[in-house]
Specification:
CATH architecture: Alpha-Beta Complex
Structural class: alpha/beta
Mean pLDDT: 92
Number of helices: 11
Helix content: 25-40%
Number of strands: 6
Strand order of the largest sheet: 1-2-3
Radius of gyration: 20 Å
CATH topology: Aspartate Aminotransferase, domain 1
Low-confidence stretches: none
Distance between the termini: 43 Å
Length: 326
């Protein structure tokens, strides 16, 4: 964004529905606004309309460094951040050094009385949660339901592979697969897949993407069903990708330009961490990944305290060593 684009603006209203993961390019676009406004002598007053974070107050992943930054990853954020858009904007302002910029966050009165409404636990409340609070209109075509963000922090990694992440279906990111997974899906039983993860079960299926990867081809794969127990989407997808890379010769990492980046594979900017990448390539154990996630998530929960506008307990899922894979 060019600085002069906002030269005559007095008030800039930001009203988007975030989904709680750093990959979400709409939120990244907002961060670029703050970068641009940092150079203004008279920056406009930025007003953010607050909306619930459908991924809740749970955090996942490692904190992105500048080495891996891209349109799908703002530095300083973990894969799943547990913040509202207003709180994210406080971070963006801080990172941009836009100290003179006036930032206001407008929220409904009930959010002040009941901040938990901004951080719904859909796994716990299920259909009792009024999804209309944050999903009157789907925020983007591939984010069709308020349950999609609960798997997005992990399943977005599939964009860095030759697997279909379900784009072109009615359940993107929940449904995934490829034509070459026919045998794995056809002969599926829980014992056939060595990847274990509390909080989710896999249902074998076949599907026909109408666009994007494998468009018009029958794909064989799985749908992720959440069971209501605590679930760590990123850890689950990491283990699934490690298993697929080791067991399917047709599996491959996506090549070519991805989100305006051409000098490194898509999986590198999506995973955004050398330990996670080493695990995916079979050069590191999941024990090391688990320990890295535990420390990074703990560090982020502490660091995010200064950004919080609303009182709540940010949480992380404790990974069971008995479910380590690789």
């Amino acid at each position: 964004m060019q600085p002069d684009w906002l030269a005559d603006v007095d008030i800039l209203l930001v009203d988007i529905q975030d989904v709680g993961s750093r990959y979400y390019t709409f939120a990244t676009s907002v961060s670029y606004i703050f970068d641009s406004l940092a150079t203004h002598d008279r920056a406009p007053h930025v007003v953010v309309i607050e909306r619930p974070n459908p991924a809740g107050a749970q955090v996942e992943g490692t904190i992105l460094t500048a080495e891996y930054q891209s349109f799908v990853g703002r530095p300083g954020l973990p894969h799943r951040h547990g913040l509202t858009l207003g709180e994210l904007c406080r971070l963006y302002k801080q990172q941009a050094g836009a100290y003179k910029l006036e930032l206001s966050i407008i929220h409904a009165p009930e959010y002040e009385r009941q901040p938990e409404l901004l951080f719904p636990d859909l796994l716990e409340t299920g259909t009792r949660f009024n999804v209309r609070q944050c999903w009157e209109i789907a925020p983007s075509p591939n984010m069709p339901t308020p349950f999609t963000p609960l798997v997005y922090s992990g399943q977005c990694l599939l964009e860095g592979t030759n697997l279909s992440e379900g784009r072109g279906t009615t359940r993107p990111f929940e449904i995934w697969g490829a034509p070459y997974l026919r045998q794995s899906a056809a002969h599926f039983s829980p014992g056939n897949i060595p990847v274990k993860m509390s909080g989710a079960r896999l249902r074998p299926l076949r599907f026909l993407p109408m666009f994007q990867k494998h468009a018009g081809q029958i794909c064989f794969g799985f749908q992720i069903h959440l069971t209501g127990e605590p679930y760590h989407s990123l850890a689950h997808t990491l283990k699934l990708l490690r298993w697929l890379r080791e067991s399917h010769t047709d599996f491959a990492w996506l090549e070519g330009v991805y989100e305006f980046v051409s000098d490194r594979p898509a999986i590198e900017i999506l995973a955004g961490d050398p330990v996670l990448l080493a695990y995916l390539d079979g050069r590191e154990s999941f024990r090391v990944v688990r320990e890295k996630l535990e420390q990074a998530e703990h560090d982020w929960i502490q660091a995010a305290r200064e950004l919080r506008v609303y009182h709540r307990n940010m949480s992380r899922v404790a990974l069971d060593p008995a479910e380590d894979f690789g």
